[in-house]
C-alpha cells in the first residue's frame, strides 16, 4: 500500500506541472507569421546573395585566370591580397604591351621574298622582237613622200625649202633632195597620204636584212616571224605564238637556241640633217626578249646589238610573284574596259594603252604603233602634236601613265657577251657568199645568239610574313605566359559579365517584388514561383546565350581559318 501511494503522489506531482492540451493557446501577438517569414526570407536572401554567379568572390574562386582567386580571397590578409593585385596588374600590363607590339607588326603587313630554282623538262622559248634603228629606207622615199614627210624628217622647212644649209650633205643625198625639191612647184600631191601605208612600204623588210636563221639547228625563215609596229616603225617578232604555238626548248646551251645573221643596211639609213624623233644617229638593231602574252615595248626595254659583232645572250626565265594590297602594290586582276586593246595585263600593255589614250585626247588621232580603231595621225600632227605629247609623258613627274606591276610576271634575266664579226679570215668568205664587199660586211653584218643557259627557271615569290594564325598564336602564348589565360578563359569572362548584367536588370525587379511582407501562403507561393522562374527561365536564357556565343566563336574561328588559307595570288603556271 505504501508503494502504491508513493506512485500516485509522483503521478499527481507530474500532472501538476503540465496543463491539458486544451489549455495550451498560441497567442498571435507573441510571434507573427509575417515576422517568421521575414526572418526566413532575409536569411535565405543573404545566403543566396553570397552564392550568386555574379558575385566576384564566387567567380574568382572558380576562374581559370591565374592569380585572380588570390586577389579576392577573404581568408587572406590585406597585404597578401595587395601583393597578388600588383603581380596580376604587372603581368597584365606586360601582356597588353607585347600584344600591342604584335598587333602593330601585323598591321605593318610585312612580307618575305622566297627564291628558288626549279628544274623543268622543257621551257617555252621567249618571243624575240627585232627592230632596225633606222625607220625608213632612204631609197624608197618618193616625191610624194618627200612632199608630205620632208618637214617631219628634218629635210624641208614649211615652205618646202631645203633645211639646215650650214650642213654639207653628201653629193648623192643633195642631188636627190634637189631633184625632189625642183618639182615641188608644179607637183600635184595625192589627195590622201597614209602614214600606215608609208611605214609599210618604206620600212625595212625582213627578207632584206635577215641573212640566216637557225633555231635548235633547224633552218627558220620569215614564216616564223610576225610583223609588229613600235616606236622604231616596222619590226618583227620571232616565236610570237600568233601563227603557230610557241616553240619549246628541250636543252640548254647556245646550240639549242636562236641564231640570226642580220644585215644593218646602213646604205639605206636616212641622212641626218637635224635631230628628230624619227631619225636615228646610231646604227644597229634593238632587240627585246619577252613573253608571248606581252606586247613589245622595245624603245624602253630593248637592248642594242652592233654591226661588226656577234652578240651572245644567255637568258634564264624568272617567274615572279608579287603580293597585292595591303602587303604590296601589285595589280591582281585585269579590267578590260581600261586596257581593251590587249587580252592580258602587263606593264607594257598598260603603258601603250595609256600613251594611246593620251595622244588621242590631245591630238584626236593615234600613231602608227598604237592600237585601236581611231584614225592615224598625219605627218603634220606627228610633228606638231603626237611627238610632243609622248615627249611630255617622258619629261613630266606626275602620275600620268604610271602602271602597276601585275601580281604574276615572267621576265628573262640576260647575260650578254660580244665577239668580233667577222674575223680577218672570214670577211672575204662572207663577202663572196652574200655578194657584197668586205668593207660592207664589217660595217653591216651582225650576229645574234639567244639561248637558255640551263633547262630550269627561277621563282621569286613574295610571301606574307605574318598572318592571323601567327598573331593569335603569339597573343595566346603571351596570355598563357603572363596570366595563364586562354580562349576559354575569355568565355568565362563573357559568362561572368552576362551574369552581372542579368543580376543588375532582372534580379533587381525580382527583389522589388519580394520587398513587401507576404502571408505564409503567399510567401510559399512566391518562393515556389521565383524558384520555378529561376530554374526555368534563367538556365534557358543562359544556355541560349552561351550557345550563341559558342556558335559565334566557332564561326569566327572558321572564317579566320578560311581567310588565312585563301591564296592571295594565283599560282604561276608553267608557260603562262
TrEMBL record:
This protein's record includes keyword Transmembrane helix: yes
Cellular compartment(s): Membrane
Membrane spanning residue stretches: 479-498, 536-561
Gene Ontology, cellular component aspect: plasma membrane
Pfam family, one: ASC
PANTHER family per UniProt: AMILORIDE-SENSITIVE SODIUM CHANNEL SUBUNIT GAMMA, AMILORIDE-SENSITIVE SODIUM CHANNEL-RELATED
Protein name stated in the entry: Uncharacterized protein
Organism in which the protein naturally occurs: Ciona intestinalis
Amino acid at each position: 500500500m505504501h508503494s502504491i501511494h508513493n506512485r500516485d503522489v509522483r503521478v499527481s506531482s507530474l500532472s501538476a506541472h503540465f496543463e491539458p492540451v486544451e489549455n495550451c493557446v498560441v497567442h498571435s501577438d507573441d510571434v507573427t507569421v509575417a515576422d517568421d517569414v521575414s526572418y526566413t526570407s532575409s536569411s535565405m536572401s543573404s545566403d543566396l546573395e553570397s552564392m550568386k554567379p555574379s558575385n566576384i568572390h564566387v567567380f574568382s574562386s572558380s576562374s581559370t585566370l591565374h592569380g585572380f582567386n588570390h586577389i579576392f580571397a577573404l581568408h587572406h590578409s590585406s597585404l597578401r591580397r595587395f601583393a597578388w593585385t600588383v603581380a596580376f596588374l604587372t603581368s597584365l600590363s606586360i601582356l597588353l604591351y607585347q600584344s600591342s607590339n604584335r598587333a602593330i607588326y601585323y598591321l605593318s603587313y610585312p612580307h618575305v621574298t622566297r627564291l628558288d630554282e626549279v628544274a623543268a623538262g622543257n621551257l617555252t622559248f621567249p618571243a624575240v622582237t627585232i627592230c632596225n634603228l633606222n625607220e625608213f629606207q632612204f631609197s624608197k622615199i618618193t616625191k610624194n613622200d618627200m612632199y608630205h614627210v620632208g618637214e617631219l624628217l628634218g629635210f624641208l622647212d614649211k615652205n618646202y625649202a631645203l633645211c639646215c644649209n650650214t650642213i654639207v650633205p653628201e653629193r648623192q643625198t643633195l642631188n636627190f633632195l634637189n631633184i625632189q625639191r625642183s618639182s615641188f612647184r608644179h607637183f600635184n600631191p595625192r589627195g590622201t597620204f597614209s602614214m600606215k601605208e608609208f611605214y609599210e612600204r618604206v620600212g625595212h623588210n625582213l627578207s632584206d636584212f635577215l641573212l640566216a636563221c637557225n633555231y635548235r639547228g633547224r633552218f627558220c625563215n620569215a614564216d616564223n616571224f610576225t610583223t609588229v609596229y613600235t616606236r622604231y616603225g616596222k619590226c618583227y617578232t620571232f616565236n610570237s605564238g600568233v601563227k603557230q604555238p610557241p616553240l619549246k626548248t628541250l636543252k640548254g646551251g647556245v646550240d639549242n637556241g636562236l641564231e640570226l645573221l642580220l644585215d644593218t643596211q646602213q646604205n639605206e639609213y636616212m641622212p641626218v640633217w637635224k635631230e628628230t624623233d624619227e631619225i636615228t644617229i646610231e646604227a644597229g638593231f634593238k632587240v627585246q626578249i619577252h613573253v608571248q602574252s606581252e606586247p613589245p615595248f622595245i624603245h624602253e626595254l630593248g637592248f642594242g646589238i652592233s654591226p661588226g659583232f656577234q652578240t651572245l645572250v644567255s637568258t634564264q626565265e624568272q617567274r615572279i610573284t608579287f603580293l597585292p594590297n595591303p602587303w604590296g602594290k601589285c595589280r591582281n586582276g585585269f579590267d578590260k574596259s581600261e586596257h581593251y586593246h590587249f587580252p592580258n595585263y602587263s606593264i607594257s600593255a598598260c603603258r601603250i594603252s595609256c600613251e594611246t589614250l593620251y595622244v588621242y585626247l590631245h591630238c584626236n588621232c593615234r600613231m602608227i604603233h598604237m592600237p585601236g580603231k581611231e584614225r592615224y595621225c598625219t605627218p603634220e600632227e606627228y610633228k606638231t602634236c603626237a611627238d610632243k605629247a609622248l615627249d611630255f609623258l617622258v619629261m613630266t613627274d606626275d602620275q600620268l601613265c604610271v602602271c602597276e606591276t601585275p601580281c604574276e610576271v615572267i621576265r628573262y634575266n640576260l647575260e650578254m657577251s660580244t665577239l668580233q664579226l667577222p674575223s680577218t679570215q672570214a670577211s672575204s668568205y662572207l663577202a663572196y657568199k652574200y655578194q657584197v664587199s668586205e668593207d660592207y660586211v664589217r660595217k653591216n653584218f651582225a650576229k645574234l645568239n639567244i639561248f637558255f643557259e640551263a633547262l630550269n627557271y627561277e621563282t621569286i615569290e613574295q610571301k606574307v610574313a605574318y598572318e592571323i594564325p601567327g598573331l593569335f598564336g603569339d597573343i595566346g602564348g603571351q596570355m598563357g605566359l603572363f596570366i595563364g589565360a586562354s580562349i576559354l578563359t575569355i568565355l568565362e569572362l563573357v559568362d561572368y559579365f552576362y551574369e552581372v548584367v542579368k543580376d543588375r536588370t532582372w534580379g533587381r525587379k525580382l527583389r522589388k517584388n519580394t520587398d513587401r511582407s507576404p502571408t505564409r501562403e503567399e510567401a510559399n507561393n512566391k518562393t515556389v514561383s521565383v524558384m520555378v522562374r529561376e530554374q526555368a527561365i534563367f538556365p534557358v536564357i543562359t544556355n541560349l546565350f552561351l550557345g550563341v556565343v559558342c556558335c559565334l566563336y566557332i564561326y569566327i574561328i572558321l572564317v579566320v581559318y578560311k581567310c588565312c588559307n585563301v591564296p592571295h595570288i594565283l599560282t604561276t603556271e608553267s608557260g603562262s
